[in-house]
Automatic annotation (TrEMBL):
Domain ABC transmembrane type-1: from-to ranges: 80-273
Organism: Deinobacterium chartae
Gene3D superfamilies named in the record: MetI-like
Annotated keywords: Cell membrane, Membrane, Sugar transport, Transmembrane, Transmembrane helix, Transport
Classification lineage: Bacteria, Thermotogati, Deinococcota, Deinococci, Deinococcales
Protein name as it appears in the record: Multiple sugar transport system permease protein
Membrane topology: Multi-pass membrane protein
Length: 288
């Protein structure tokens, strides 16, 4: 009885007209981004002849045959594994190096620190096409062409890597110095403070850096195009252009099916880390 009385006395929640209007605007703004993804997914289920018909309608012949053919008739599984293999190396190494460098630029004092930091930021402004020829000459001299080594190194030490260092530096600047002083009192050196205190408090920033590293590695087309010629070594951005017929046409149904498979890991990575990503972007740049 008391529960019913409380429920009756509780005022009914009213929808704020401003919030409803805001949600409607957000839905309209998101449509240009969501509709192409929806079209790609629905078209990946259709045969080639039905793709350019009604964009959001599925006929009785829709199914998963395109996905089966992608793996059956092409070395797509191996190429998918190549991209995952490179990703699992690039992302943790980029994140760790960015955290170490960001902590050094934010907390340590050494000669030329600001100059070196400016040079690191300058790496984001140099087009990759400008350094492509000397880099290729270097790796060819070392005998590393047609291998994943130059692709991995160039993805780690890229403009995205410089951005990751900047984000981590901005994050470490925002952390109170009292935390570092407390660690010193407990007998920790710089490495101990970094590993046991600063790094556990940096999960949002680390998640943001990891997302940028995932995007940089997963979508890299330029470096694999230059250094990889063996079909078995190709990564997914290059694999997507292999779904062609002998006359130069494109198998759009297979390309879209492969595109859905390529997009899934990136969407999953962002969904898993979106909260930390937003928190980090909101906090970065507040000091320094």
């Amino acid at each position: 009885m008391r529960t019913e009385t409380t429920a009756l006395q509780r005022p009914a929640r009213r929808s704020n007209p401003y919030h409803l209007f805001l949600y409607a605007v957000l839905v309209l703004v998101s449509l240009p981004f969501l509709l192409p993804i929806l079209w790609m997914f629905l078209s990946s289920l259709k045969p080639a002849a039905a793709i350019f018909g009604s964009p959001f309608a599925l006929g009785p012949d829709a199914g998963l045959s395109n996905f089966v053919q992608v793996f059956r008739d092409y070395p797509f599984a191996r190429q998918y594994g190549n991209s995952l293999y490179i990703l699992f190396i690039v992302v943790p190494v980029t994140t760790l190096l960015a955290a170490i460098a960001g902590y050094a630029f934010a907390r340590l004092r050494f000669p030329g620190r600001d100059f070196v930091f400016v040079l690191t930021l300058a790496a984001m402004m140099i087009p990759s096409e400008l350094t492509a020829v000397p880099q290729f000459t270097l790796f060819r001299t070392l005998g590393s062409t047609n291998s994943h080594l130059p692709v991995i190194l160039l993805q780690i030490f890229s403009a995205t890597g410089a951005l990751a260092v900047f984000l981590m530096r901005q994050h470490f600047i925002t952390l109170p110095k009292e935390l570092e002083e407390a660690g010193r009192v407990d007998g920790l050196d710089h490495l101990g403070v970094f590993w046991h205190i600063m790094l556990p408090l940096s999960r949002p920033a680390l998640a943001t850096v990891a997302i940028f590293a995932v995007l940089n590695s997963w979508n890299d087309y330029f470096n694999p195009l230059i250094y990889l010629s063996d079909e078995r070594l190709l990564t997914l951005p290059l694999a997507l252009q292999r779904f062609t017929d002998p006359l130069g046409g494109v198998y759009w149904n297979l390309t879209l099916a492969a595109g859905v498979l390529v997009a899934l890991p990136v969407l999953l990575a962002f969904l898993l880390a979106q909260r930390q990503f937003i928190e980090s972007l909101a906090a970065s740049g507040t000091k320094g």
